[in-house]
Amino acid sequence: MTTSSTTGNSIRVAFKANNGKYITSNSDGNVLQASSDAIGSNENFQMYLQGEDRVVALMASNGKYVSNQQDGAVPLAAIADAISPTEQFTVEDWDPKIVVLFAANKKYIQLVDPTAALQAQGSPADAATFEIVLLSESSTPVETRLSAETPPTASPSPRAATPLSATPPSAFTVCFCGTACTRDEGEVSRDGSDKNIYAPATGYIPVRIHKEITGDLRATTPSVTVRGVGENDWAVPRDNSEPLVFNAPLNADPSLLSYVQSYSGGNQYSVPTQLDGWSAPALALHGANLAAASGKNIYNFIGHSRGAMEAIMAAWFIYFYGPDDVKHIPINIFAIDPVPGTGEWWGIFTQLPPNVVNYVGIYAWDMCVQPIDKPFMGLVPRPNGLMTGKLNEATIYNSWWPNKWKYIADNYVLTDPLKVGTEPQPTNYELYACRGRHSTVAGNYTADGKYDAANVSETVAPVPELVYKMARGYLTQWGTTFQTASASQQRVLALRKSINTFHRDFDIMGGGGTRTSALTARPYVRRLSSISGLNPFNSYYMDNVVGDPPYKMVYPVTSERTDAGWVKWNFL
After folding, report:
1. Which residues form the Fascin-like domain (predicted)?
2. Beta bridge partners of 345
3. Average pLDDT of the chain to the nearest whole number
4. Mean pLDDT (whole number) for 31-50
5. pTM here?
6. Full residue range of the structural domain in which residue 250 is found
7. CATH of the domain at 14
8. Where is the domain boundary, 101, 130, 146?
9. What does the alpha-carbon distance between residue 226 and residue 508 come to, in Å, rounded to a whole number?
10. Considering 58, 159, 271, 416, which has the largest number of Cβ atoms within 10 A of its Cβ?
11. Is residue 5 included in any domain, yes or no?
12. Which of 316, 451, 447 is nearest to 381 (CA)?
């Protein structure tokens, strides 16, 4: 591990935390706590800029650098004499003039009771937020505020020298659209899709994310969109689509190349295809080839509905069909309500491949009215060996069945995350339950999750805004750079509070404020699965596997719930 006692340009700052207190190093062991009412010498930090990638090191008033001790097992403390990765933190914009800090152990800094100590153990949903107050040499605040996207010009420190800086990540982001969605979904209205059903701050989230990365809907680098199943690329023309990329740089199995050919180019609008989803592998292979051809060293995938399922398939195609210098490139997946639909579920989307290093899944709680919501059974893929401390290598299963590509992952089936068990929690594998329906979590803010723009509801909008902010937060953490600042002006905690305070529309979406029914088989509870195959009964009740919601959060459940899964869930 490289360490350094030299630093780059520096700025004197104080940090005001979301509890209204300033961070101070005036405690036993120089542990950092958000507990001071005013700025004094112990609340001063010299922030040394470690290159141009928003990485900083912090020196406290005792002349020591702030260190993430024991990889986040204990609070941050000002104890280090030199800078190593343990003393480096990434500053990420969260809200206007508000930032979060991300440590080298891939965790966000949060405030830990009872002393409001700073500790690197949080997810984006738990991250503490800070206002960075610029200070003069006399330690008095100046007017300007610092954000990660618009840093002020730094003055050279008296001890300035060559900064320690890692090579900035080089990420290519693929945004997979959901069924029946175009690549300008939510930005341009068309027959059957009014852009005004989407929250203004978020649009249709996969498309809006791409637009805010590139500044141009039709751009293909450093991110790209992939059209949805059964749709053409754009609102105009309505009768044609662009050719898909199948043949390179991935060396796909001939059975897969034969299967996908009919889904490239021409008029791909098809209601039957929207129902059966058979074009999804073609779109996944296309997205995988675009990523593999990008020349980047990180692939970030975000998808909604079948687009989220395609992201997992694309990762498998890269792992098994990619050149040696591509197949092990790390892949991060942000999945918004992944739904394969009815029919056969394949191992190439029920199991994460070895090259996926982070998985975040958002699952809609109120997509639960049976039997009409049965086709929207949620996919919860099995964590891979990297996440569970098990074997993290897979070999192709050469099935004798036609379309052998469907079964290439069947040699690599790990523990079902939804079953009862006592295994250690997986790392970098996060599952979130969220109020709303399948379309709500992707940007739709109508009161019923349907498609009439006359029925939009401001009390529903916090769900799309929260998921949008989480998507930006995770993608930024994984190396994606945004040209455009977040369009949501609401803070995360305020959005979560609103969701759990004004929940009437969400209750109605899912069949009422209580989900216990005199009817059998819990008709107002969503089903989830991690099991490949055709058996429609291979599923779990969502209110079983997630465990008990926090008592302060309003998630209607049934009295029959039992058997929580071994993987712990988060509630938004």
Report:
1. 12-91
2. 533
3. 91
4. 94
5. 0.76
6. 171-571
7. 2.80.10.50
8. 146
9. 33
10. 58
11. no
12. 316
